Amino acid sequence: MQMLGDDDLDLRGLSDEELERAWDLWFDLAQHTNDADPPYAHGVFVRLTSEDVAAESGAA
């Protein structure tokens, strides 16, 4: 996987093609690290339980 250089990090100076490649790299990295993400630790999902999900889906 090709990494971004210092010139690539200057978003204002990127061409449309370079900016698209930077976004594609970011999205690829985000997808590859999904399994390593910790469970929800903040926000509206903090107290969500498997029973809540089952009740909401009608699978209770």
What does this molecule look like?
It is built from two helices and no strands. The protein is elongated and about 50 Å long. The model has no long low-confidence stretch (mean pLDDT 78).
Descriptive labels:
60 residues, mainly alpha, 2 helices
Number of helices: 2
Largest sheet: none
Fraction of helical residues: 40-55%
The number of E-state strands comes to 0
Helix/strand-derived class? mainly alpha
- The end-to-end distance, rounded to whole angstroms, is 44 Å
Question: What is the residue-averaged pLDDT?
Answer: 78
How would you summarize what this structure contains?
With 60 residues, this protein is mainly alpha-helical. The chain contains 2 helices and no strands.
